[in-house]
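Schema walk-through. Below, the input block comes first and the output block second. Nothing else is stored per chain. Lengths vary across the set, and this one has 55 residues.
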Amino acid sequence: MTGTMIGLSVAIGRFIEALFWAMFRVAGGLAAAIAGGVLALIIAYVGLRWLLRRR
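--- output ---
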């Protein structure tokens, strides 16, 4: 009986760990996408200002 309880406890622990890893992975991907978008906007803004100033 004790072995079954330990096995269940380990299984629940591994499930929760996998859940946290998945959440962190999604959050990291989302943060990278947002940072890339902001960087693209900054580059576009600077490039547009440079083009308008050149005229």
